[in-house]
Amino acid sequence: MKKICLPALMLLCFLVNSNSQTPINLSTQSGFTFTETFADVSNWVFNTGPSNGTFAAGNGAAAWKGIDATTTTPSVPNATRITTLSNFFQTPGSSGGVPTYGGGLYRGSQSLVMLSTGTTDNSTSLALDLFLDFTTVNAGTLSFDWSSLNNSTGNRNSSLKVYGSTDGTTFTEITAAQILNFTNNSATAGSITNIPLPSSFNGSATARLRFYYYNGTGGTTGSRPRLNLDNVKITAVPTTPCAVPTAQPTSFATGTVINNSIQFSYTPASPAPQNYLVVMSSNSSLSSNPVNNTTYNIGDNLGDGTVIAITSGSTVTATGLTNSTTYHFFIFSMNNVCTGGPLYASTNPLHGVATTLSGPVACAAPSTQPTALLFSNITTSSISGNFTAASGTDEYLIIRTTSPTFTGTLNNGTTYNGGNVLGNGSVVTRTSGTSFTSANLISGTQYYFFVFGLNSQNCNGGPVYNSTSPL
Predict the structure, then answer these.
(1) Predicted pLDDT at 2
(2) Overall CATH class of domain 371-465
(3) Which residues contact 399 (CB under 8 A, 6 or more apart)?
(4) Are 312 and 274 in contact (CB under 8 A)?
(5) How far is residue 430's CA from residue 418's CA, in Å, rounded to a whole number?
(6) How many Å apart are CA 107 and CA 58, to the nearest integer?
């Protein structure tokens, strides 16, 4: 339990950061990997003096640049043929209460949205650049998520291409990253995963990717679809040459096994590889083993198995399994944080076997409670809190009172939702996270908060609460 008193009057201050064009330095990124989730895109602000496509504010914005000038040649699609500016964010219009969109760049919901219009195929385009610095490292891969968004009526198509350049003048298409002719009002989405970047990026401090949207080919009437861009991931690899691992992991051991998941661990190989490739199969052997210089992604087929993990750790959980079913696991040592890989120890992988239970186990109360409740974002009518998670706990029930003692009783098997009254308190929320916001509070009132751990997932009879000594 922790108490806090709401002030009757609060003073807020704001800090505005000014950003300049700054490429992402891949050599300093954790695991040589950069990911932009656009979580702060609502705060991205373009510079207006000059309006050159660079950003003045927003976490993550400094590495991106819009295009501030159009060109008339060559023909669309071409990385240097730009017809639509992207040096400011467009604002949707409205017609009869329905949003309308012109060509340009938009803020999405933690994403960027691109659109170029026009009834004539391959006639308009929009581009956005991402600046990258590969000094002292070699280029790795590109990944991103995308989806088409409806735009008024019609069935015309649009496309996205990605180009690479080290001088901003000469661009080469990364053909495996293209998304061609997605259709308006036909929901489509996908992921571009681990596409090799150009070797010209190796060691370059001036690399850039150009995400190039154009109005495509196909369709007969109406508007072009918008493109939603999210989760852009860039990897690099050290210049050290890859070597084939010389040892496999040992000592397969199962951990928690239930009706639809199996947790297992193993003893790391010695000498240690950079990562492990984990394959699951219903058969006791694989029809083929991993191939050097081939990148496998989670969900890929390998032999008659499925890749379920690529990890440097020694504990893996396989989920989404069928009850009363035997599964075989194959763990291969691999080196991939290097140049010339990935390379696998493809013979004699560690092999383990486990069988799922026939049904869910009974839920058990968590053995410990969360700790370290802290408050923030305190206003005259709301309080936010966060705490440290408890081990072996699925979710948390947060209760608010105006008394230092909570008089309610938590009954196992009963679900409590936000707003429910319990004893002398009321439920703020039930959450699997470690943060919450309590709203509609009375200014100047002292409140007490109690956080209870509970288990309810992959078990029968839940939720089951730890009712003793809540946080």
Answers:
(1) 56
(2) mainly beta
(3) 406, 408, 422, 425, 426, 427, 428, 449, 450, 451, 452
(4) yes
(5) 7
(6) 12
What's the chain's Rg over C-alpha atoms?
A: 27
For 24-238, which CATH class?
A: mainly beta
CA dihedral 437, 439, 443, 447 (to 10 degrees): -60
Q: What CA–CA distance (Å, rounded) separates 76 from 437?
A: 49
At 324 the three-state DSSP class reads coil
Written as six digits, the tokens of 359 are: 């049904």
The single-letter DSSP state of residue 177 is G
CATH topology classification for 250-359: Immunoglobulin-like (2.60.40)
- Helix intervals (H) in 195-341: none
CB 233 within 8 A of CB 34: yes
Q: Report yes or no on whether pTM surpasses 0.85.
A: no
pLDDT digits (tens, 9 = 90+) for 117-152: 999 999 999 999 999 999 999 999 999 999 999 999
Residue 440 CA to residue 429 CA, distance in Å, equals 13
Average confidence score pLDDT of the chain: 93
Across the range 15-27, mean pLDDT stands at: 70
Asked if the domains 250-359 and 371-465 are classified in one and the same CATH topology, the answer is yes
Return d(Cα 38, Cα 333) in angstroms, integer.
34
| Chain segment 401-444, per-residue pLDDT in tens | 999 999 999 999 999 999 999 999 999 999 999 999 999 999 99
Residue with tokens 């691109």: 114
Q: Which amino acid is at 186?
A: S
Domain boundaries, the chain: 24-238, 250-359, 371-465
Neighbouring-strand partners of residue 326: 355
The pairing of strands 446-455 and 98-100 is: unpaired
| Residues 460/447, Cβ–Cβ less than 8 Å | no
Q: How confident is the model at residue 97 (pLDDT cuts 50, 70, 90)?
A: confident
Q: Concatenated DSSP letters for 25-66?
A: EGGGSGGGEEEE--TTGGG-EE--TT-SS-EEE-TTGGGEEE
The residues near 97 (Cβ < 8 Å, ≥ 6 apart) are none
Which residues have CB under 8 Å from 354's CB, separation 6+? 254, 257, 262, 264, 326, 327, 329
Strand 125-133 with 64-66, pairing: antiparallel
